[in-house]
Request: fold
Amino acid sequence: MTATITWYGHATLGLETGGYKILIDPFFSGNPAASISAEAAQADFILVSHGHSDHVGDAIAIAKRTGATVISNYEIAGWFDKQGVEKTHGQQHGGGFKHPFGYLKLTLAFHGSALPDGSNGGNPCGFLLTTDDGKKLYFAQDTGLFGDMKLIGEEGLDLAVLPIGDNFTMGPDDALRAVKFLEAKTVIPIHYNTWGLIAQDAGAWAKRVEAETKSKAVILKPGGSIAL
Ligand code: NI
Ligand code: MN
Reply:
């Protein structure tokens, strides 16, 4: 088994691969959809896609408690340094690095990235992870649709995690177009139903994905996992 992916609600994900625990955008406190508390979260690495408070979330507290390394863009990694987080790793878009859990590349995302205190959070990103046994996992996190998703799809994706909530990110129609660009074997929707503003019918979206594409859509409940 290459990787287990858990959706904790909103855009918060857990990934276990190669014996490491990775948290992505760990927003538990104040997240009405969160399936566990920040205190229960475990991590060796924490990936932060952009500066917004629903993505930075509890990352500082979890990093300080667990000793996890925070990985983000260079500006956000520097901001975590200033918050007293001991281990950070800054990258930039298009740049990859071989971490212990796999080769991680930051991808384009079409969004904002101001940090909770108004600091410059650089540019928002998604994550493309190649696991040690060659599986390719794409976590789009917060983004609108962009044509260069076709380039990400050329990597040959096993999994794409996509927002469908609309208003702040792609909605269901554009997320369906994204699935067609990405051609991932499996797709998982996120960033919906946290609040009424981003309420969506994920089951209806999954039916459209399976009718119009070759991708398999997996709808997780908060706390639910899939193994690849
Ligand atoms: Ni955001
Ligand atoms: Mn968000």
About this structure: The pocket of nickel (II) ion (ligand 1) is lined by residues 50, 52, 55, 111, 142, 168 (CB under 6 Å).
